[in-house]
Amino acid sequence: MSTTAQIGVTGLAVMGRNLARNFARNGYTVAVHNRTASRTRDLVEEFGHEGDFVPAETAKDFVAALERPRRLVIMVKAGAPTDAVIEEFAPLLEPGDMIIDGGNAHFADTRRRERELREQDIHFVGTGISGGEEGALHGPSIMPGGSPESYDSLGPMLEKISAKAADGAPCVTHVGPDGAGHFVKMVHNGIEYADMQLIGEAYQLLRDVAGYTPAQIADIFRTWNTGRLDSYLIEITAEVLSHVDAATGKPFVDVVQDQAEQKGTGRWTVQIALDLGVPVSGIAEAVFARSLSGHQELREASRGLAGPKAAPLGESEAAAFADRVEQALYASKIVSYTQGFHEIAAGSDEYDWNIDLGKIASIWRGGCIIRAAFLDRIREAYDARADLPSLLSDDTFAQEIAAAQDDWREVLIAATRQGVPTPGFAAALAYYDALRAERLPAALTQGQRDFFGAHTYRRTDREGSFHTLWGGDRSEVTA
Ligand code: 6PG
Questions:
Q1: What are phi and psi of 377, to 5 degrees?
Q2: Can you name the CATH fold of 5-173?
Q3: Does residue 60 have an active-site annotation?
């Protein structure tokens, strides 16, 4: 067995296989291994001409095929299967070797695995990889965590196989130590859920309020995709909406069951945000919208509930309404990203990751599911001011929202009048209005807490904590 492979990939389902091919196509010698050996053979048979593959049937052969320090990529299901593969390979490795987990692992698992393997002097590099099957093959956006030393060794290879942004910059950076890469990938997915939900709401409004057909809405999305909403998700939305079901001749979107599924990364984004105390209401609404859609019995039981009787818009008003929806979608999108970046900043503070937010925006510009022209603007905002308190504090975004807000509100009024659910748009606007409010009813909440539980409150005019003797003479005491 020759020890010439610069990198190895174990787990050759479609993501692993495509990633291995991407390395090989970029001139690297790639050792390939899979639990079921036939998959390894199939890969080499089908794609062997694309580059240098070293097929390995056993874990031992696989490890022996790698040059040192070894770079071993595992592409298996997150959770127990990842632990099982680590347990199988770790005893075969030597100090300085690297295990790169390219799955959608929970960052807390990544932190644990990194800690455990560090004791053996093995670098564990939890790595977010976005872009689906096509991205893995042609260039994904890559979010590696782990030690800086491991990035010194891996970085150049990852830069080579990654997507390149429009300015040629590779869509990969060392995100930060231990679980930072998987954390950022998790938030990427949360933002992905929010983007998809907002696009879904825009579609529903164009259909139910403006009366457009799916094919017409596809054209509207195509037009939007030439402007500031230019993004992969808008582009594929137009493709999905214009697709006609061959069996029935109906729009494809009308023959698909309206129950959205999820594998869980969006849910994690919200769970972790709750722990960190970061309001990611737009992302949360996107997760809840998926779960609501799946409650089929509850929805059946609720079908007869009363709704409004407003008529859809006439043809003459529809085009103007579509323009307003574009404004509402763009403004809501700014809010989703504001919330997502806030969560990354909070995670970075909590775990001392020192994440460069501008860099994250930069590596999301190409290859990943949320890639969008808009991310270049976010990069600029953070490059201009690394300690930006929020994206909404950036002058350009603030001005754009100022210009969009009347339409944003009008769209929500129309949605409410018509009874079209728009939880993403509404949550985004509520977040915006709450942040800019002079006073919030949180003061009343504090009063109520103090009334029923003596939980105390702080005053606007003096330092300290206070309690009012609600059951007595209602005088105030220092707590
Ligand atoms: C990516 C995607 C990917 C994710 C799918 C499905 O960045 O390539 O985020 O990692 O698995 O989008 O996610 P759900 O099944 O949870 O919708």
A1: -70, -40
A2: Rossmann fold (3.40.50)
A3: no
